[in-house]
Hints:
The chain is an alpha/beta fold. The protein has a single domain (5-215, 230-276), classed as NAD(P)-binding Rossmann-like Domain (Rossmann fold, 3-Layer(aba) Sandwich). 43% of the residues lie in helices and 14% in strands. It contains nine helices and eight strands. The chain has an eight-stranded mixed sheet with strand order 3-2-1-4-5-6-7-8, with helices on both faces. α5 (159-180) links the parallel β5 and β6 (186-192). α1 packs parallel to α2 (37-51), α1 (14-25) packs across α8 and α4 packs parallel to α5. The relative contact order is 0.15. The site of NADP nicotinamide-adenine-dinucleotide phosphate has 27 residues, from α1. It holds the Pfam family adh_short.
Amino acid sequence: MAGRTVLVTGGTAGIGRATALGLATMGARLAIIGRDRGRTEGAAREIRAAGGGQVDVFVADLSSQSQVRRLAGEVLQSLSRIDVLVNNVGGYWNTRHVTADGLERTFALNHLAPFLLTSLLLDRLTQSAPARVVTVSSNAQAMGHIDFDDLQGERSYSGARAYNQSKLANVLFTYELARRLQATSVTSNALHPGVVSTSFGAEDPGRVQRLFAPFMRPFMKAPAQGAATSVHLASAPGLEQVTGGYFANGKPKRSSKCSYDEAAAARLWQVSADLVGLTAPATTS
Ligand SMILES: NC(=O)c1ccc[n+]([C@@H]2O[C@H](COP(=O)([O-])OP(=O)(O)OC[C@H]3O[C@@H](n4cnc5c(N)ncnc54)[C@H](OP(=O)(O)O)[C@@H]3O)[C@@H](O)[C@H]2O)c1
């Protein structure tokens, strides 16, 4: 990875920090995004110490579209190339929360943020090609359903339903992006990291998570193991031209039947573009 620049969202903790650490030790120049400056600087110091290379720090609350736009501007100013974008940030909330933009938080952070950030950085990725977009989904996508009549759980909200939908949205986005980028050398793949012992869902956990997580922790993957598929997709030489795939345990895997619905993917893309205020779909082909 020497000479390559990798941008990781959510690089302060969990799978994202382990992904950044893994890629830094392979020689990549890292740029990490966190929402708290102190935590992000702290993670960057740790990653620098492990990898020995440059680690840039960007701070933004990705649930806010104005912050994503400001962040993208700063990234484009600082990074002359982006070889890999790892869309890693994601969360689970048991109860319904609303972002600064008035959007349901799971949909906004897990799906709209990577959609908008990737769109705003796409020209830089294309200029840096061969380049890769890696999006962290989850096997929860298999239980997901895109409810176009109630995308943001206004009529009825369940944390699990919102999360599953957002993770299916990650896969639909990944596949649609791959189709739109067919004429370029930018690939787009999604993955399931495994069940990983992190702070995932800790802000607003459900009763089941509160009760069972402590007992399940010893059986979960460590963050470095959970990051392995992200690291593989970001770096494996054999994957340079592999696009439009879903991976788990470092291997390709079929995602849910719904995730291959191209009409649903195109519709979701359009709805998302409207919700983030992108007038035209982001495509370079
Ligand atoms: N853990 C699992 O078992 C599991 C399973 C399947 C899929 N996944 C997926 O893996 C990804 C990473 O999850 P994780 O387990 O590593 O979660 P985590 O431990 O909660 O880490 C989440 C990361 O995202 C950052 N973040 C959260 N909200 C943010 C916001 N509004 N703006 C900017 N950054 C924000 C956090 O920063 P702070 O330091 O500020 O909190 C942290 O760096 C997610 O997409 C999740 O859906 C996880």
